[in-house]
Amino acid sequence: MSAHLLSRRARTAVCAALVAWVVLLTVVLLAPSSNGPDWVISHLTRALQQLGLPEVLAHPGRVESMLNVVAFVPLSLLGSLLWTRPTWRDWTAVGFVVSFVVEVVQAVALGARQATNADVVANTLGMLVGALLGLLVRRLLESRTSEGRADLPDRQSSAEELEPPR
Asked: How many other CB atoms are found less than 10 A from the CB of residue 78?
């Protein structure tokens, strides 16, 4: 995707959203206590149960895993819109490394936090999903712009054909 697929204003907005998400995610993942994430998990679990979702889907462990996936989707989605050179494989690898480092920090430096392998898997999956969504969005933008460019010469040539000879 060339830089021209996103306007300067759109690139600025995507960049601002990415920075805001990184800051929010960093605060949540590296907070000394898990009270905030635990609160979100318990309230979302309760809400899903009240909606009538089966226990297999509304179990707190599953809700936590899905939130871990969802938390990492914006990183690679927004990132892949800004930087087109990294592939979905690159974004997935970055997700694994970042998630692994976060879990190590939680295990070593944040005694009140619990580091798990499942979080690494869920976060990496989130990066993969976001990267694939980013690829889809880029392809849609590319096809939209290439279609717009492709029919422009046709319009010009047909307009030239309609002009009376001089």
From this structure: 24
Amino acid, res. 77:
L
**Closest Cα to residue 95, out of 130, 62, 63?**
130
Strand, coil or helix: what is 54?
Answer: coil
pLDDT class of 144 with cuts at 50, 70, 90: confident
pTM: 0.82
Residue with tokens 């800051």: 23
CA nearest to 65, candidates 104, 119, 14:
119
Say what percent of the chain tops pLDDT 90.
73
Q: Would you say residue 2 has pLDDT above 60?
A: no
Chain position carrying tokens 């800004």: 82
Which class for 100: exposed (0-12), middle (13-18), buried (19 or more C-beta within 10 A)? middle
Would you state the pLDDT for residue 1?
43
Asked if residue 38 lies in contact with residue 61, where contact means CB atoms within 8 angstroms, the answer is no
In angstroms, the CA 166 to CA 162 distance is: 12
Joined tokens for residue 68: 């871990």
